[in-house]
Amino acid sequence: MRALAGIMHALLQATGEGHCALPKEELIEQAAKLLEIDVAIVREALERLLLDGELVYEPIGGHDLIYLPYLRRAEDCIAGLLRKLASAPSCLPPIDVEKAIAWCQRKTGKELAATQREALQKALESRVLVITGGPGVGKTTLVDSILLILRAKKLRCLLCAPTGRAAKRLREATGVEAKTIHRLLEFQPASGGFARNAAHPLECDVLVADETSMIDVTLMHKLIQALPERAHLLIVGDVDQLPSVGPGSALADIIRSEVVPAVRLREIFRQAASSRIVINAHRINAGQMPQLQQPGEESDFFFIEREEPESIQPTILELVKERIPGKLRLDPILDVQVLCPMNRGSLGARAMNVLLQDGLNPRRGDEPMVERFGWQFRLRDKVIQTENNYDKEVFNGDIGQVVSIDPEERELLIRFEERDVLYDFNELDELSLAYAITIHKSQGSEFPAVVVPLAMQHYLLLQRNLVYTAMTRGRRFVVLVGQRKALAIAVRNDRAAERFSGLYDRLVTSQS
Q: Which of 99, 227, 279, 282 has the fewest CB atoms inside 10 Å of its own CB, making it the most exposed?
């Protein structure tokens, strides 16, 4: 019985690390090591789980993989539905593309580049299209133009993104309402399922999903499944960012399979070409060191070298508290975000939060405060929601500020965007301080200014897509602080940890 539980635990742990399955021998070895029991007993337990249908065995992609059934089903369905969509004809009314583009350019006052025109034509011809590309290449302008044309034809367009902040950005960029995927699919907290599904699909002619690099295999399955029979699907995202926190790397696998038409925008637009953030993000993505500012030169990107790890912390505090707010007239608490490669260590999000809270928001006089779950919450503190709370309509990654604390009622009020949400002191395990957050947590968000510590203590996580993702979160200003060697290692290392998944092979093999 311990072996049965150990196997299930090892597989669940693997999904938390981004895997959809584990190779059979690796799973057996992990469970035996975890429980310190004989491998033969684990083998026997695995056979029983396979026999009972609790787990599924499948040789795919050169591995003998063991799956939790729902993840195998998700991969299968995504591959089947996307192939079906890719081979289906367009259901849109006839559109004269040249006329539509000319009309669109007059309306927006923005000239579309050749690659954008080509992508727009593909979007109108294909039932499914992937649009990818880095910062400053005009993904948003393209999506806005497509929506303008489709809505002029009275087509029903639905927009969604994985997080509340990403949905808000999409809404601001297009002027069209955008929802989180959970809200769009009408998540049912009681059952853990969605009201919108294959039997009760969404009501739309076109579905646009943004920031899709963040969408894991399970959510991608639920989203595509709820697409109506004749609807078009537009998948938008930057494939070079970090993959989803959940299992799989759906966007990368879909693009790599070449089963679905995909457009990669590469041309950096004039207004973005003057930004060092944009230029250096593209350089890092290409494996080149960023161009560093010359002394006295104005720039929106800086690398401040600090060889001694203990001098990185005070430098970051000075930047966040004085230098950046002074230079850009920003609020040090709300507008400047520290993004850490990891949670642990002296430069991890936990330690940085304690330092920044004391530096930016010391307790004043006898102001009320509350200590819970390892954090001290004070008035004005910046906090982040760490799990979805559907009753409060606050979601994992939402950032807010403490506006009042009532010790007698044991309640704390937090302002998220324009909405105030009340928390009982016992619910504070859903929150943590957010002066510093991990780069993973920042996906789908943008901040006026971003500061990133980089040091050899992050060695295991020093990867190109990590630094690239952090840099592309900064809208007006980005500063990297730390060791040049750590930055060089990250820029060179494009070997993201392999994720065990069969989606790519299912897309490719079913195609042939």
A: 99
